[in-house]
Design brief:
Two copies of one chain form a homodimer. Chain A is α/β, with parallel strands linked by helices. Chain A is built from eight helices and seven strands, in the order αααββαβαβαβαβαβ. The first copy, chain A, has a five-stranded mixed β-sheet. A two-stranded antiparallel ribbon of chain A has the order 1-2. The first copy, chain A, is elongated, with a radius of gyration of 20 Å. The N and C termini of chain A lie far apart (about 60 Å). Chains A and B meet through helix 1, helix 2, helix 3, strand 2 and helix 5 of A and helix 1, helix 2, helix 3, strand 2 and helix 5 of B. Bound molecules: zinc ion (2 copies). One zinc ion binds next to helix 4 of chain B. Chains A, B: Belongs to the RecR family. Chains A, B: It comes from Sagittula stellata (strain ATCC 700073 / DSM 11524 / E-37). Chains A, B: InterPro entries: DNA_Rcmb_RecR, Rcmb_RecR, Rcmb_RecR_Znf, TOPRIM_dom, TOPRIM_RecR.
């Protein structure tokens, strides 16, 4: 159990993953060593591959293995609808619900005077550029129902006023709730009942 | 989000780790992609290294990166005390308590008629071989305080009777408790108050 032991190194790194503490990291590493062939080897290869290829989409901020993500290059999704989310996890949650067939814009957070996060840090200029470039007719604000999320939604709605129709997810998102915690049905209901912002 | 996407592959493999479900696997992978330099790259390298080098100690069943683990090769730990544990996680728990300076024997489970686990599956023959080879004077049975753990402890104590002194962890291990869940102080107390089996 020396610090330079690769097993200890692996435990230390695993413990830095969200949701894993030192104890669950130790359990996970023992499990990996026991399942070296069926799990550890494919996992180490998948990590190496993701480390080599994963990047943010230059257009929307989604993560994928190409400079422009598959959603942005899918002509069938250029239907004029653009869904603005805070985070890639929220984009994934929307995709799992399989109800939205337009494109996304991932802000990468919310405005926060306290943390010094302004519009430029949130890909908001890029959002404005996309309106004309992709013939956007409606922007759907799918931000979390938190104070920061709604502050950011209002700021973006102000910027978009007069340029494009703006709506927001409505019915079904609980106060203080985060999209990534909702079931698919709730997301579907919220999208279908979206209202003008 | 195609099945052949390396990001999806990584999420699917991460979700198979104990303690991580699909949702926490997605969170972990997004975190890794964001922390590519400081976390994902070292983690993928550590996994590759562990996949290449980790193995079970041929003598005691501990995992390390050599055929015989550092505890078994440490002459200072050849003091005649041999601590029998179910699992490598239990060995690590004992080591964290920093109170035991002998060697270990990892059974790799407990006897179970139901699951077809007999003495040969548990390195019990190897335990017998070690008694003479390492001049063992006392075997400390540090098995979990579960029914299977105690059944196994009694079986081993019977095998060892008349050959070596046998003790077991006593005070401090709660009924139904598992070593890996105990704090270091409890383990220390249990070891210091061990009683003849
Ligand atoms: Zn994109
Ligand atoms: Zn060993």
């Amino acid at each position: 159990m020396k610090d330079t032991d690769p097993i200890d190194t692996l435990i230390g790194l695993m413990a830095r993953l969200p949701g894993l503490g030192p104890r669950s990291a130790r359990r996970a590493v023992l499990h990996l060593i026991r399942k070296r062939g069926p799990l550890l080897q494919p996992l180490s290869e998948a990590m190496t591959e993701v480390a080599r290829t994963a990047r943010e989409c230059l257009n929307c901020g989604n993560v994928s293995t190409s400079d422009i993500c598959p959603i942005c290059t899918d002509e069938g999704r250029g239907n004029g609808l653009l869904c603005v989310v805070e985070d890639v996890a929220d984009l994934w949650a929307m995709e799992r619900a399989q109800v939205f067939r337009g494109r996304y814009h991932v802000l990468g957070g919310t405005l926060s005077a306290l943390d010094g996060v302004g519009p430029d840090e949130l890909r908001i200029p890029r959002l404005m550029d996309r309106l004309g470039a992709e013939n956007v007719t409606e922007v759907i604000l799918a931000l979390n129902a938190t104070i920061d999320g709604q502050t950011t939604a209002h700021y973006i709605a102000d910027q978009l006023e007069g340029r494009v129709s703006v709506s927001s997810l409505a019915q079904g998102v609980p106060i203080g709730g985060e999209l990534d915690y909702l079931d698919d049905g709730t997301i579907t209901a919220a999208l279908n009942a979206r209202k003008r912002f």
